[in-house]
Amino acid sequence: MAPQREWLEHDFYKDLGVASDASAEEIKKAYRKLARELHPDANPGDPEAEERFKRVSEAHSVLSDPEKRKEYDETRAMFAGGRFRGGNGFPGGFGGGGTTYTTGGADFDLGDLFGGTGGSGGIGDLFEGLFNRGGGTQRTSTASRPRRGKDLETETTLSFKDAALGTTVPLRVTSPSPCTTCHGSGAKPGTSPRVCPRCNGSGFVSRNQGAFGFSEPCQDCQGTGSRIDDPCTDCSGTGVKVRARTINVRIPAGVEDGQRIRLAGQGEAGRRGAPSGDLYVVVHVTPHKYFTRSGNDLRVTLPVRFSELVLGATVSVPTLDGSVGVKIPPHTTDGRTLRVRGRGVPKRSGGAGDLLVTLKVAVPDKLDEAALEAMRAYDKAERESGFDPRADWGR
């Protein structure tokens, strides 16, 4: 329930400034605009811009994923539909005490239910702990589990050749990362977090109210199961700091425009030593002057002389890593495509695609008198031989 609880507390559409029925392209466009404006490198020393940058990144990571977006919409629709409707209106903070909810016509206050205000208890914790009659700490709460860092996304632009053959690029990423002072533990160097004595490390405490037993997040450790008596001064006990870092990313051969590459564990750092999220790199590929791609095959249009088609020739054709000689058979027609095996884009499974060479007659802008005279002689000889390319037209 932890992600769903966070979803109820944030309106990702509002964070990106788009409508709830916005298309994937509109969401991407809004995110890129805001990411450029709010990036910490463009707003040094501005904590408000930094916080908004984190919220925008989180919103995009959910709304850009069709499955996550569907789950997000369904979760919020369920609570907006009236089964659980906050007195302060939806969307709002489902954060706990002081908010009255209506179910079946009867009002109740979450603060009364959970015994006071504050803390990390929310509507998600209501479902996680409600009717836990056994009391005790047998069940493991999501609140006491390590909180994995969020996934991040960045972009890079490659040349056509680098995308086809593969390359290594340095990427500068500004994001929450493990604190280098406490190594992500949140505790001052030389000390360690200790098990919370109130909940015995479960993150939850139990109490009875009437005929029911309830479990609620431990107020002493905020549901984490551990206490930090002497927090790290650099990260204030979170184990995380926003910093800029450079990552050398290996781009595999054959990557295509718009493709996302996942770098496991390179996203936002988890809290108090929890696993980091992943970093997704969206690759943009610049067009090539000569080549286009068709899967793993390369396509190129090669200008040739008419005489080379008629008489046959061996011509040099460019490739991604040099050139290759291609034989044109005599009497080849204009527009014919010749296939050169294994000179295309490398395949992940080994080998490479093919190079497809389409021949196109190039007509000279002008000829000197000798060439024109030779062309007239050829035209005459061709007519006298009886060749007529339009002989069947009009019949």
Automatic annotation (TrEMBL):
Binds 2 Zn(2+) ions per monomer. Its cofactor is Zn(2+). Keywords: Chaperone, Cytoplasm, DNA replication, Metal-binding, Repeat, Stress response, Zinc, Zinc-finger. It is found in: Cytoplasm. CXXCXGXG motif repeats lie at residues 179-186, 196-203, 218-225, 232-239. The keyword Lyase does not apply. The keyword Transcription does not apply. Zn(2+) 1 binds at residues 179, 182, 232, 235. Residues 166-244 form the CR-type domain. PROSITE patterns: DNAJ_1 (PS00636), DNAJ_2 (PS50076), ZF_CR (PS51188). It comes from the Bacteria. GO terms for cellular component: cytoplasm. One of its GO terms (molecular function) is unfolded protein binding. Residues 38-69, 132-152 are annotated as: Disordered. A zinc finger (CR-type) spans 166-244. Belongs to the DnaJ family. The J domain is necessary and sufficient to stimulate DnaK ATPase activity. Zinc center 1 plays an important role in the autonomous, DnaK-independent chaperone activity of DnaJ. Zinc center 2 is essential for interaction with DnaK and for DnaJ activity. This is Chaperone protein DnaJ. It comes from Gordonia paraffinivorans. The gene is dnaJ_2.
